[in-house]
Every structure is written in structure tokens, then in C-alpha cells.
Amino acid sequence: MPTALRVGPYRVYFYSYDCVEPRHMHVDRDSSSAKFWLDPDVALEVNHGYSRRELRTIESLLRENLERLRHEWDDFCYSNTGSGADR
Question: Which DSSP state fits 85?
């Protein structure tokens, strides 16, 4: 599972088998986890354990790094599937 970003207590990553889904990232801290879509904008998909306040913080962090996160996804998924031109 490629780690795209580490900021403070947060690890932002995706699973290699996630490449069949639209671009998204998982964010973990301790025993909390959330999944956010990256397109067309950052949007929460699922939350396990984060407060609303912390989700807003994470969403802001993802927005600040959105282009980098999209690039990390594209670099990994498209170079491994050879389908970068399709997406």
C-alpha cells in the first residue's frame, strides 16, 4: 500500500488494488481511518472513528495537497496498468 503523504499524526495512502476505483485516499491515525474521493473535489466516502472537527482538518490537509495526491495516484496506478491515457 503506497504511502502518498505523512503529515503530523496522519498517514495518507491507497491500496495497490484500489486502482480500479476512482482516485481516492485513505487517512489513518491510531485506530481511526477514513476514505476520501479526490475527484472532482475532495469528498468524504467513509469514516471510522474521526470526529467532525478532525475530518474538517483532514479534508483541508487533502485539499492543500490535492495535486500531489492525484499525481501519486496517477504515477502508481497508470504506470502499473498502462492505462494512464484512459483516465
Answer: G
